[in-house]
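chain below, 422 aa
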Amino acid sequence: MHHAVKAEIITIGDEILFGHIVDTNTQWIGNELTAAGILPVRKTSVGDRAGDILTALKQAMEACEVVIVTGGLGPTKDDITKQVLCAFFETELAIHEEALAEVTAFFRHRGREMIESNRLQAALPRSCTYLANHWGTAPGMWFERDGKVLVSLPGVPFEMKNLMTEAVLPRLQAHFTLPVILHKTIRTVGIGESFLAERVSAWEDTLPEGVRLAYLPSFSGVKLRLTAYGEDRPQLMALLEEQVARVLPLIDTFVYGYDNTDIEEVIGNLLKAGKATLAVAESCTGGFVSYRTTTIPGASIYFMGGVISYSNAVKMRVLEVPEATLMTHGAVSEQTARAMAEGVRKHLDTTYGIATTGVAGPGGGTAEKPVGTVWIACAGPAGTTARLLKLGTLREVNIELTAMHVLNLLRETLLRDRQESR
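prediction:
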């Protein structure tokens, strides 16, 4: 079997550490490296300090065969990556003529003046291999030492992704003899991580050598990620599918999809298959359920619209929730959730209507209905189903979880109705 080629990803910039921007580069690079057969084992984030960057480079090159560095390549004084790379590889900066021509053409094409700091973008460490950046002014740089590779790329995601795809990944695949690394992800909802682990424990204990299991919990449910290592891609794919078939009978009621399939896409496919339509009535989620539903291209085929009935007045006037229901049971109640789902279904003339109403927090709770008390409902041709959620005290978390639960209630209803119609 091929030796696993390990990789570390290093991000450079105070803005990441200070939380001013979100590091999306590491996730994307990790996914692409894995697909190419390179195993990411660590990520490091350092600020704009030469000593910290040098330490990170030294540790990464000692531990891994591949090091991908992003950030710190701009024209301003805080961008010091090239200078640090010169110190690390014991070389010096020099104007690279091809890089200079690219930068010059970049500014000319945009009708902008090129000042001295922009010209210095073409100053590269002498020992690097130049990687042309056709999407920006900071070139990529490829270094080799003792059979290992370090690549420095711009931090701008658009530029980094294009350089990785067109230049870096093909070079890495040519430089190393790489194994095959495959992932298969089972996406579940409605069951906690510990309960899921208990259900699949016996199956997990019998996983074959070369197959690893990871539990990935999130607001959208728990994902079971199977990873297989080997040399024969078709054989590994068959092995993963065999393991999925073995575990599915244990958890099938909680499984809604695989790999990158979100629950919104599953619901959309079910609605389209049944030629059904959907309307949404939201209180505590404030439009988040509608937003998630419409992230799927083509959602206009089945999503007719929604009502954000945050006040009782809107619940009564638009959704026709009876005043007596609100006075007797309150806005956060099974009766109100049912009336909201039925009201939006009626007024928007759809096959299904779903609703959310609850105490998202952090304030507004009572002894009878503490923060995190949420009712959801789904109205359809076969009647209305309501469900009580008892969540926590964090507002954003409650909104995310409520949206996932009501979408899952809709999914379960669609599957039940389809089964009963057969």
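The mean pLDDT is 94. Residues 135 and 159 are 6 Å apart (CA to CA).
thats it, cya
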